[in-house]
Amino acid sequence: METNKQLNAVLIGCGYIAYYYGLIASKHDNNFKIIGCYDIITQRMIRWAEHFGVKTYKTIDEAINEKTADIIINLTPPDQHFLINQLALQQNKHIYCEKPLATTITETQELLKLAKQKNRMIGAAPCSVLTDAISKICELINQQAIGQVRFVTFNMHDFRIDLGRPDTWINPLGVPWPYKNEFQEGCTREHSAYSLAIATTLFGPVSWVGSLATTVIPEKKINKQETINVTTPDFTVSILKFANGIVGQLTCGIISHIPDRSIIIQGDIGYIKLDDCWNYNSPVTLTQRFFGENGLEIKERHIEFNKDSERADYYNIDQARGITNLCNAIQHKSILVCGNEHAAHVTELTNSISQGIQKSPQTQFERYLPEDIFNAIRLSKPIKY
C-alpha cells in the first residue's frame, strides 16, 4: 500500500480538550502534523503553541487562510462550529470538527452543500467508533454469531457531574473544563454522538427518531458558593427505527450516580455487550442462547481483540484517530467514518433527540460494508503508542 503523505493541520480552539488532542497527535505523525493554532484568548493560544511547538496567528482568518494547511481542526464551543466550518470550507480546507457540526439542520445542509462544491471532506468527532472492539463487534454481527439483529440499546449515562467538583478540573496547561458551557449545551448534545456514531456505523441510517427530553435536576450545585440553573435537558430517552428494520433505544444523562456507557446488541440467538464505549480496552462479551439436547443452553465467552497500550490522554480515547481516518479518506485509502453525509445524519439525530421531538430525518447516507469498516479502523490506528 502506498504510504500516506503527511498532511498539515491548524487547530482552532485551545480549550480544555485541545491539550489531549495535541498530546496524542504526535503518535499519528505519519499521517498529519499540527503546524499552528488559534484561540480568542491570546495567552491560552500562546501556552498551547509553546507546549506543542507550533506557530500562532493574530486572527481567525489568518489561521484558516494558512497556505500550507490541508485540514482545520475545529475544537471551539458548539455555537461557533458552523461559522468556523463554513470559513474553512470557503478557503478550500478539509475539516475535522468536534460534535456537533452545527446547531440546526439548515446550517448542517449548508455545510454539506459547500463541501460538495469545494470537493472537500468533513470529518466529525467522536472517534469512539474507530476501535478494535467495534471492529470485532462488526465481525461477530457479520458472522451471524447472534443470528439476525433485532434490538439494540445504547446507554450514555455519565455520572452526576454537578457533584464531581467540575470547577476543579484543570488540564496540564492550566485550562479549566468548561462546565458552564457543558451544562448549558446539555449532555445529549455533548455526549450522545459517541453512541450514535457507533449505532449508525454498524446499522446504517435511521428512518425515524422519537425522544423524551427533560431537565431532572435544574439546579446544578457546583460548590458551596456556586449553583447553575439550567433548562437544557440533562436526561433523554429516544427510540431509533433504523432503515433496515432494527429498533434501538438510546438513553443519555448526567443524573445517575453510576456511569453506564454500555452497548447491548440483541439477536435471535443471543447478544453482544460492550461494557464502555469510551474505553478502547473495554470488555466485549458474546452470550448465545439456544435449544440443545438438554433444553435451553447458554454459552458466554469474552471476546479477545487487540488491546491498546496505556496512554496518558483523556479517558482511554484516542482523539486523533478521527483525523487520521480523514487523512486516509482524503488520500483515497479508506471510507470516512462519521464524515460528510454520515456526520450530518448524526448531527441531525443529536439535535432532534436533544429537542425531544419525533421526526423522519432529512439527512441520509449509504450504509458501510463490513470490510470497509474493518479497513477504516485498521488504518486509523497509529503506528506507535
Description:
- This protein is of the alpha/beta class and 385 residues long.
- It has a domain at 132-314: Dihydrodipicolinate Reductase, domain 2 (2-Layer Sandwich).
- Helix content is 32%, strand content 25%.
- It is built from eleven helices and 16 strands.
- The strands form three sheets. Strands 8-11-12-7-13-14-15-16 form an eight-stranded mixed β-sheet, covered by helices on one side. Strands 3-2-1-4-5-6 form a six-stranded parallel β-sheet, with helices on both faces. A two-stranded antiparallel sheet has the order 9-10.
- A hairpin with a 5-residue loop joins strand 9 (219-221) and strand 10 (227-229).
- The model has no long low-confidence stretch (mean pLDDT 93).
Overall number of strands: 16
Question: Mind telling me the C-alpha Rg?
Answer: 21 Å
Based on helices, strands and strand pairing, what is the structural class?
A: alpha/beta
Mean pLDDT: 93
**Proportion of strand residues:** 25-35%
**CATH fold field value of the domain at 132-314:** Dihydrodipicolinate Reductase, domain 2
